[in-house]
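Action item from last week, closing it out:
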Amino acid sequence: MLEPSLIKALLLAGLAAVVAVLVWWRARSRRKARLRENPANDYAMRQDWSGSHGKLNYSSFVYFDADRDGRYGLGDWPMAGIMVRLHDGDGRFKSSARTNRAGFANFLVSMKRRGAPIRAPGSYRFTVSVPPGWRSSSANEVQSQHFRRLAGSPTGLVSEAMLQPVGLCPVRWLSGSVAGNVPASLSVMSKGQALAEHTLGAGAAFRFDLPDDADAIEIAGGGVARRLALSPYPTQLGLLSPQNAVIGSTAPLQTIGFDDITTRGLRKVPSGYAGLTWFNLNAMAYDHTEGSEGYANGNLSGDHVCYTSSGHPAEFSSDRPFGFHSVMLTAAWLRCEGETALIESWLGDELVASDSIALSALAPVHYAPMLAAVTRVRFSTRHYWQLVLEDLVIAR
């Protein structure tokens, strides 16, 4: 046990430290008060540029490169949830951060804060972790900057330039399956010209990568003929079966984007919206839920998305048959990366299609069954994580 005299000394030392801090704080407050009292200081030109006591974020910006041209343009958008790592000039790991919903991975710069990962002059390396099955279209996922001292700057440290935006895009693929005894062929198109031809085996699943410049696919044969314009995302066609009529190429399509349900953050989708009956689906601003990657990455138009409330099964329906063309599907959170969605479509009491899709929170999957006649579509996930829906396309 400590001697009473030692305990007393420690208490006195602690008390003296507290008193010293209070004295310093009061003196600082009085100096500030004197400055604020004088109107001449309201907009005074700075005279002393020697101090640099502030802090700021130095950011790596990551975007989804929709047109895959390696430049951040009007058709591209920020990506949330991408990991960026920081190393110093000697290769020592300093920090890591994920991009926020605005696409920025932020690293604190400050010469005064001990916890700041950038607090001394030198070279620093920023590395964007490219997800599996993706690539950097801008080819600059690793960048370095040198920081030098500059008195009077906000933090005392500056770099010669900011980091260049980093573009990412997934390797696009097309998948589906063909019903038994239904031979078919598939053409991958670009500007009306065939880039590749594939034979689709009867009773078999298929999956293949798409060229960057592919803009459509055409399927012929076996009563499953169809044409689909491709999106920047991977595409799942579901089961191709002659028993299910396909939406015709001249059928009028209606895109439901969920942006006109509410101008606020959240509202349950009401029955009657877009002429359909809705159950357990909510419309929500993509930035309403803090920290969710999928709500941001799954937002493709406007400011709102739709999702399955509490991750439980949800559906939309109508008494009159309608066409179910396609929908964009995204996992709501990186914590459920690889979650499986089940989409079931009915015509009356008959189940006409049932497809499973592996989901990602980084980008949607374009599910395009192109069913000419359904009355109910049900969405569920295997582990009851929220499923994000966007740009639902139907035919009347």
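Closing note: Residues 4-37 form the longest helix (34 residues).
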